[in-house]
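yo, beta-lactamase is done. seq:
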Amino acid sequence: MNKYFTCYVVASLFLSGCTVQHNLINETPSQIVQGHNQVIHQYFDEKNTSGVLVIQTDKKINLYGNALSRANTEYVPASTFKMLNALIGLENQKTDINEIFKWKGEKRSFTAWEKDMTLGEAMKLSAVPVYQELARRIGLDLMQKEVKRIGFGNAEIGQQVDNFWLVGPLKVTPIQEVEFVSQLAHTQLPFSEKVQANVKNMLLLEESNGYKIFGKTGWAMDIKPQVGWLTGWVEQPDGKIVAFALN
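structure:
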């Protein structure tokens, strides 16, 4: 599942006539509808991949893909958890957006991670060691309390604070992910507006013709079968939000 495939899948939904109406998203339960975009179904098939694309506009959720049952199936969030990790760390003053996380010269999984970086730069590069350091600062007790307070997924983090989002026990469904990120997009999570704005700025992927795409990838490489994510939202020129979770 590469970047270009992901972008095509998301873009094809908008070209297929997806409409948006802006409203508060936390007033009533979401309405879930099975979508009928055969192009998306075909692309998953052609890539020999089982997947679902969950789209939320206001309170309506549409499901697309060739494995719609995945929408309500729990998976480890992998690096999509960096969004919540950053929110918790900033809200509880365990770091700030200007702090430089130092690289101490150790070998890392990717050479792009082998440098000093801010939390925002680490978000762009999906640098696991930086967010593991932040998780250790937050600590097991506070992390568990905050994950439960937000109600993220099954809210289970186990006894190791720096890898529960990579190998479990924390798990989340694509529907839960899209509802979480929709609330973040609308600045409606129970964190300060400033903290949510700072994290949203870290997630900007692309801006073109008045459209902004925000998102976070995730890839669980240490479990079988592996799991890939892209979770985020599109902000349209009129300010309307379409949230998505690709799994």
